[in-house]
Specification:
The protein is an alpha+beta fold and 365 residues long. It has three domains: 139 residues, Probable tRNA modification gtpase trme, domain 1 (Gyrase A, domain 2), CATH 3.30.1360.120; 84 residues, Aminomethyltransferase beta-barrel domains (Alpha-Beta Plaits, 2-Layer Sandwich), CATH 3.30.70.1400; 75 residues, Aminomethyltransferase beta-barrel domains (Elongation Factor Tu (Ef-tu), domain 3). Helices cover 21% and strands 32% of the residues. It contains eight helices and 19 strands. Helix 2 packs across helix 7. The two termini are 40 Å apart. The model has no long low-confidence stretch (mean pLDDT 93).
Length: 365
């Protein structure tokens, strides 16, 4: 079974019918631009933006042993997670490297797990791999759910417009069902990488109804549906890792800036000894950082980075800042070369060199 899989969102046909000039991504399983990348980026940073993430790897875990089992094989503490509550957790291999980062919601009758779209098959196989006698059954939920993220500084006020008082008093990491004018959707308020966002999900029909309801509203909000191009710029600036660029089995949670999803108070899990040793003996050799290209560059994310001839790291994600009008990137660097202000040289696959400057995350606009 392949580690990666293309998954086409059940919402894509709806968006194609509404936005006549959308641009698909290179693989055809996602939408790169809906109306204009810069305007979509401005909504993410200054207004409110909706992202369709229905092509996520979505799993249901049924059975009385499900929560204890996930606690045992992933990095975060999940035992005792109350009904309707949520937590992020990472699955790592025996070397402490990342299989996938997921969010788990305890819906009492079952656990809902959402992970990366590209690792859907891999994650399902990994979870199944260690089930022996436990009362657990695994169901692939792809195609049965609509999933969205609502981001931006106006997001919470926008929810009040859509759902009225039922959106009041949302608690972090506690799932609720919102309803307005016959529209029903589950919602989860979370903070990730210092960004507040809302995860909304339901059946495919509920997703369609939500989108139609939003489209029927007249509002003063700067609202956009944001595609992959705008979000890629947003996440590079904010320092948000994603699969397969930063979340992959090359890196451990320290190197991918995911250590907050690791509990050091729980017992063993797969990869625990390696990660604990890195923490105890301060052996983390790499860290995620940002770089800004000093001059205009047309390069791919496969660039290697050098400091005075010594290899310093590798670029993982490239984007072009709308405000700086320069290329910006996420990278994983050796700690020795990761201080802000360090001058490095990016070398592309053809040997062409570009001067870059290391920056702390989040980057400037």
């Amino acid at each position: 079974m392949s580690d990666t899989v293309l998954r086409i969102s059940p919402m894509m046909e709806f968006f194609k019918s509404v936005y006549q000039n959308i641009v698909l991504n290179k693989t055809g399983d996602g939408i790169s631009v809906y109306t204009g990348a810069k305007q979509e980026y401005e909504a993410l940073t200054g207004g409110v933006a909706l992202r369709d993430i229905s092509n996520s790897g979505i799993l249901e875990l049924h059975g009385k042993d499900s929560l204890e089992y996930l606690h045992r094989i992933s990095t975060n503490s999940l035992v005792g997670l109350p009904a309707q509550n949520s937590a992020a957790t990472i699955f790592t291999n025996e070397k402490g490297r990342i299989i996938d980062r997921t969010r788990v919601v305890n819906l009492q009758d079952y656990l809902l797990i959402s992970g990366s779209s590209v690792y859907a098959n891999k994650l399902q196989s990994w979870i199944n791999r260690y089930i022996i006698m436990e009362d657990i059954s695994l169901k692939d939920g792809f195609g049965s759910y609509s999933f969205f993220e609502l981001l931006g500084p106006q997001a919470e006020s926008f929810l009040t417009l859509i759902f009225g008082s039922s959106a009041d008093g949302l608690e972090f990491n506690v799932a609720r069902k919102l309803e307005a004018e016959g529209v029903k959707i589950n919602i989860l308020k979370v903070i990730e990488f210092n960004q507040k966002k809302f995860v909304l999900w339901g059946s495919v029909e509920e997703g369609f109804n939500l989108l139609k309801h939003i489209g029927s509203q007249e509002s003063v909000f700067d609202f956009r549906v944001a595609g992959e191009e705008a979000y890629e710029v947003f996440r590079v600036i904010k320092g948000i890792p994603a699969a397969p660029n930063e979340i992959n089995d090359t890196y451990n949670p320290y190197e991918a800036n995911l250590i907050e999803d690791v509990s050091f108070k729980k017992g063993c899990y797969i990869g625990q000894e390696v990660i604990a040793r890195l923490d105890t003996y301060d052996k983390v050799q790499k860290r995620m950082a940002g770089v800004i290209f000093d001059d205009k560059a047309e390069v791919s994310a496969s660039c290697r980075l050098f400091y005075e001839g010594n290899e310093a790291g590798r670029i993982t994600t490239m984007a072009r800042s709308f405000h700086l009008e320069k290329e910006i990137a996420l990278c994983v660097l050796s700690r020795a070369y990761s201080q802000a202000g360090t001058k490095l040289t990016a070398v592309d696959e053809n040997g062409k060199e570009y001067p870059v400057t290391v920056c702390n995350l989040p980057l400037r606009k």
